[in-house]
């Protein structure tokens, strides 16, 4: 139990990383390389930070209200954004969603209600200890996994997978690509917003750095390295890569490690993520976790 308490912050962060991996995975189910997840994540956090300053953010029921507002608001925004943007494909869609995140970041940097460049501090805490946030983060992860597991086995999920395989062939079979791509995009936005609400209370502070391009790349790494062909991949990738910086910091503190190497292990997280993506793409092009590895239960019947 002492071990769990000592690493409670890391455990919560790993679970939230898995949730964000699933939020990135949902658009990819329909063949969309969207990097807007970080923007919706940031919006969810800002919603929680602002609402908690207006109401009783320490009340757990009020936190659920924040999730509802953040999820609903991001769903509407995702539909408004997705209708024109999802006409794009591949790298063009990625660039458009990066632009969305950057526009949102600039707006938040210049608004008084978001705290400007400084951000919002002292966000109310509904739990006395960091371990308590597992009561929010873990059910969110389990519920999200159950939702995606079920989604892959119904008509909507099969349509998304058909679009990912070949959009033109799916359209000839009577599948409406625009409808299902927008559905996947919106579901990912809602899930990212809910993770943002939990993260804002957990971190006790929120600012524009939470929705940067770097954050988008980190979320993408969760999926690419974990595996983009099964929902288990982003969960594993999110947990492993969230724990990686802590592991690197631990390695940097080992006696005998040169000072320069130790500093690189501590501060070069994005460089290491980039190297992992390159190496993983070469040796594990489908990610570490594949449907074949997991067996029949991970694939739709």
Summarize the structure.
The protein is mainly alpha-helical and 301 residues long. The chain has a domain at 2-211. The protein has helices spanning 2-6, 8-29, 37-54, 60-85, 90-109, 134-151, 155-165, 167-172, 177-203, 213-226, 232-252, 259-267, 269-283, 291-294; strands at residues 120-121, 205-206.
Shape: globular
How helical, in percent, are the residues?
over 70%
Rg estimate, integer Å: 19 Å
Largest beta sheet: strand ordering = 1-2
Q: From N to C, what is the helix and strand string?
A: HHHHHEHHHHEHHHHH
Q: Give the helix tally.
A: 14
What kind of sheet is the major sheet? Answer: 2 strands, antiparallel
Classify the oligomer: single chain
**Beta fraction:** under 5%
Measure the end-to-end span.
40 Å
Average pLDDT taken over every residue: 86
Classify the secondary structure makeup into a structural class: mainly alpha
Number of strands: 2
Low-confidence stretches: none
Structure description:
The chain is mostly helical and 301 residues long. The protein has a domain at 2-211. 72% of the residues lie in helices and 1% in strands. The protein has helices at 2-6, 8-29, 37-54, 60-85, 90-109, 134-151, 155-165, 167-172, 177-203, 213-226, 232-252, 259-267, 269-283, 291-294; strands at residues 120-121, 205-206. A two-stranded antiparallel sheet has the order 1-2. Helix 2 (8-29) packs across helix 10 and helix 4 (60-85) packs antiparallel against helix 9 (177-203). The protein is globular, with a radius of gyration of 19 Å.
